[in-house]
Amino acid sequence: MADNSSGKVTDELAALDFAAVSPEEFARIVKGLSAKQLTEVMHGELRTRVLGEVFGRMKQQFRPEAAGALTALIRWKITGDTEAVYETSIADGTCTVSEGRSEAEPRTTLIMADAEFLKLVSGNGNPVTMFMMRKLKVAGDVGLASGLTRYFDIPKA
């Protein structure tokens, strides 16, 4: 897919049933696209579907044994045409995800563009490198943010 025009890539992604795409297949799709292509496909209804599916799967990919007694609210701000905000709450060995900003104070907030978000959640981006290159901004508990990937089964492409 990487060498196709953006329109063709967008059409192919729009035709996908994201609920039927495995995390590993999603990781391969993301790996095959450039940052520019990832940004170009993240518009409108397709962006809403992709973000909804990724955050919808976090609960299933959560590793309670790794989180132990951790209690934390993580706010995700994904910038693009519009800012999308989701929150991941980890407490009592469970993970819940909600769309939108709550009144609660997050322990950490992760801010990144669409392409960086997709790379991060698909295992195609190194969070430390992204942070050092200012592609991922962290507000609050940087230590928690740096270890978040160990609390989830991240696919490998």
Automatic annotation (TrEMBL):
InterPro entries: SCP2_sterol-bd_dom, SCP2_sterol-bd_dom_sf. SUPFAM superfamilies: SCP-like. Residues 63-152 form the SCP2 domain. This is SCP2 sterol-binding domain-containing protein. It comes from Streptomyces drozdowiczii.
